[in-house]
Amino acid sequence: MTHVVTDNCIKCKYTDCVEVCPVDCFHAGPNFLVIDPEECIDCTLCVAECPAQAIFPEADVPAGQEHFLALNAELAPRWPVLDRRIDAPPDADAWNGVPAKLPHLER
């Protein structure tokens, strides 16, 4: 099993989760993070650290967000590994909790 970053991370891109990952499975795009399903060891450490509550075990992805499983798998090989915390975008707090952010995803 793997963990999956879902919709609420878009335009928030908090990286608290990255700091606790023991296998560096997070990859960073312009305004979103993804988890590489091939690298994730299902340790669950990232879930509690995500201020946006955007990370779920693949079996518990919220209804209607199942497509994020494929999106994480697609984007992880394209984006660089992020292995340290970086500052969130200045407007991250304003975007936290905004629904249906997929149209804002920058690839």
Report on the structure:
It is built from 4 helices and 4 strands, in the order E-H-E-E-H-E-H-H. It is 21% helix and 11% strand. The chain has a single domain (3-83), classed as 2-Layer Sandwich (Alpha-Beta Plaits).
Write the layout of secondary structure elements.
Blueprint: E1 3-5, H1 16-20, E2 26-28, E3 33-35, H2 45-49, E4 55-57, H3 67-75, H4 92-95
The helix count comes to 4
Order of helices and strands: EHEEHEHH
Helix content estimate: 10-25%
Rg over CA atoms, rounded to whole Å, is 12 Å
- Which stretches are poorly predicted, pLDDT < 50 over at least 5 residues? none
How far apart, in Å, are the first and last alpha carbons? 25 Å
**Physical arrangement of strands within the biggest beta sheet:** 1-4
Query: Which structural class is indicated by helix and strand composition?
Result: alpha+beta
General shape: globular
Instruction: Please outline the major beta sheet.
Output: 2 strands, antiparallel
Average pLDDT metric: 97
Q: How much of the sequence is in beta strands?
A: 5-15%
Quantity of strands, as a count: 4
In the CATH classification, which architecture applies?
2-Layer Sandwich
CATH class categorisation: Alpha Beta
Instruction: Write down the CATH topology.
Output: Alpha-Beta Plaits
- Number of domains in the coordinates? 1
